[in-house]
Write a structure and sequence with these properties.
The chain has 354 residues and is an alpha/beta fold. It has 11 helices and 10 strands. The structure holds adenosine-5'-triphosphate and fe (iii) ion.
Length: 354
């Protein structure tokens, strides 16, 4: 199968072409247009600006993705599109564009859950089999998923408040470091002493896989104000704060991963794998922490390349391919959904799906 995939649920406008079968597919092209410069002055993504930019750019990225892949619409088997969850204006722009393509070319339409796109990415990059354990950790999400099939996800737990990416971004803001906060905090942490400040590890004492990251920024703010002298933070203080913050995140994720693995391994999967996705998976300290936990348990650790961990069209094309291969088709009544929990991602939940 050859599918075109469209993604426009947050602040990246993306399209890609993927070819293959479930568990054995290649990315023929992947085009991502970010919008960070459009939102830079506002300290966050402005939904109206995002929706307008998506509407203007979808055409451009689709054309480019098809050209890069060297296929025309007639060479495709279907069009896949993110139908949620996300900023509703952007999701609607994508769904509308995909419907236009489908109506104009007679191609089948397949709606995809954005989180399923992230969660199935390690099958695209590494061809891993079901069931696998997924830690999806990004700017907006943090959850453990037991993935048993392209439409079969069980959420084992996740953050009850902020996502870690958000915590990294807020930490960067509190310490006057550039956005996105993840990479800048990680770079500072390398120069710092992680043992100097001890930040809370919320919910670590509680059973289960739930996590909380919002208290971390409060603790960080308090500690920052304590060490600041006359409004000035030394470079060493800043690096130490970053290192202490990052260590707390690493330890919480590692310990909760241990518990999620215990649930996953209880069913004795034949070739156990834990995979990560989402922008925060780029963090080397977090990766190292997860790798250690995986190794302790004799489980393979899979991390897709960063370009496929953050929002992109290839993951949507691929998740669409998995659904398409399973017989899923959506009609012109496919709707854009701002909220769409993954464990309700079964076909039939989508308008017109089967
Ligand atoms: P979602 O996909 O959940 O809607 P999003 O699009 O904001 O959210 P991503 O694009 O997957 O998320 O990831 C962006 C987030 O990843 C940002 O919060 C960023 O700070 C964080 N991030 C990127 N690199 C790193 C890093 N090296 N360490 C920690 N966090 C990082
Ligand atoms: Fe995403």
């Amino acid at each position: 199968f050859i599918l075109l995939g469209l993604e426009s649920s947050c602040d990246d406008t993306a399209a890609a072409v993927v070819r293959g079968v479930p568990g054995d597919a290649q990315v023929l092209s992947s085009v991502v247009m970010g919008q960070s410069s459009l939102h830079a002055d506002f300290g966050g993504v402005v939904p109206e600006i995002a929706a307008r930019a998506h509407a203007e750019r979808l055409d451009v990225v689709v054309r480019q993705a098809l050209a890069d892949a060297g296929v025309g619409l007639s060479g495709l088997d279907a069009v896949a599109v993110t139908a949620g969850p996300g900023l509703i204006g952007g999701v609607m722009s994508g769904v509308m564009c995909a419907k236009g393509i489908a109506a104009g070319s007679g191609l089948p339409l397949v709606g995809v859950n954005h989180l399923a796109g992230h969660a199935l990415t390690p099958r695209l990059t590494d061809g891993i089999g079901f069931p696998f354990l997924m830690l999806l950790v990004s700017g907006g999400h943090c959850q453990f998923l037991l993935v048993r099939g392209p439409d079969d996800f069980t959420r084992l737990g996740g953050t009850i408040d902020d996502a870690p990416g958000e915590a990294f971004d807020k930490t960067a803001r509190l310490l006057a470091l550039p956005q996105p906060g993840g990479p800048s905090v990680e770079a500072e942490a390398l120069k710092g002493d992680p043992a100097r400040f001890r930040f809370p590890r919320p919910l670590l004492d509680r059973d289960g896989c739930d996590m909380s990251f919002s208290g971390l920024k409060t603790a960080l703010l308090r500690t920052r104000d304590e060490v600041m002298e006359g409004n000035r933070l030394t470079l060493q203080d800043r690096a130490d704060l970053c290192a202490g913050f990052q260590r707390a995140v690493v330890e919480v994720l590692a310990e909760k991963t241990r518990r999620a693995l215990a649930v996953y391994l209880a069913d004795a999967p034949a070739d156990p794998v834990i995979a990560v996705a989402g922008g925060v998976a780029a963090n080397r300290a977090i990766r190292a922490g997860l790798e250690t936990v995986a190794a302790e348990n004799g489980v393979r650790f899979v991390a897709p390349p960063l370009s496929l961990c953050t929002d992109n069209g290839a993951m949507i094309a691929y998740a669409g391919l998995e659904r398409f291969a399973g017989g899923a088709r959506d009609g012109m009544d496919l709707s854009a959904r701002p909220r769409w929990p993954l464990d309700q991602t079964n076909a039939g939940m989508l308008g017109g799906g089967k």
